[in-house]
Amino acid sequence: MLEQSLKASLQVEVIDNTFSAGNKIEDIRVETSKFQFLYSEGEDFNFMNVGDYNQISLDKSILDYPDLLKEGELVSISINTEDGLPLSVDMPASVVLEVTHTEPGVKGNTATNATKPATVETGAQINVPLFINEGDKIKIDTEKGNYQERVKE
Fold first, then answer.
1. Beta strands 30-41; 44-49: pairing state
2. Rg, Å, the chain Cα set
3. CA angle 84, 86, 88 (to 5 degrees)
4. 45 lies in which domain range?
5. CB 137, CB 150: distance < 8 Å
6. Helix (H) or strand (E) run with residue 3 in it
7. Which of 93, 108, 149, 106 lies closest to 126, judged by CA?
8. What's the CA gap between 72 and 83, in Å, rounded?
9. Number of neighbours of residue 138 by Cβ within 10 angstroms
10. Domain co-membership, 76 together with 115
11. Is 109 a domain residue?
């Protein structure tokens, strides 16, 4: 039942409102905690609070780029302490993922800004430069879902 109410409450809505000088606005206490991504189950993504080990399930639609999350990744979730409902999910600025499939690049064609599609370990499709090969680890910007750089180990 808690999971159903979490999914229903995560719809974000912006309301324009003008307040008079004498109006009072009610304060809401919000706590932000680190959560570890455990697994996905259909449209549900399951997270565990790393502080108290409580688990919550969130709908895939509230995440910016859910296909970039791999098991064990840490996110910050802001929760309204009065009703216990999540308000926002902040993913890490970037993630490092391994390329599982891409076509080989054409030798000598690395000077241009040409890109090719690549599939990473989470199943996400990312456009990468031609010099990226299968097995390479790449850094991806989670805000835009773009390739940033190749990571050398």
1. antiparallel
2. 20
3. 155
4. 2-9+28-90
5. yes
6. helix 2-9
7. 149
8. 27
9. 21
10. no
11. yes
3-state secondary structure of 106: coil
pLDDT band at 4 (very low <50, low <70, confident <90, very high): very low
How many structural domains does the chain have?
2
pTM for the full predicted model: 0.71
What contacts 81, CB < 8 A, 6 or more positions away?
A: 29, 30, 31
Q: What is the distance between the alpha carbons of residues 113 and 2, in angstroms, rounded to a whole number?
A: 48
Kindly state whether residue 20 falls inside one of the protein's structural domains.
no
Residue-wise pLDDT for 39-54, tens only, equals 998 889 999 999 999 9
Q: For 16-25, 31-40, 85-94, 113-122, which range has the lowest pLDDT when averaged over its residues? A: 16-25
Q: CA dihedral defined by 32, 38, 42, 43, rounded to 10 degrees? A: 10
CA 73, chain centre distance (Å): 9
Torsion of CA 145, 147, 67, 49, to 10 degrees: -80
- Is 22 within the bounds of a domain? no
> What's the CATH code of the domain at 32?
2.40.50.140
Residues 6+ apart with CB under 8 A from 13: none
Q: Is residue 17 part of a domain?
A: no
Q: Which residue type, as a one-letter code, is found at position 76?
A: S
How is residue 149 written in tokens?
Answer: 């750089």
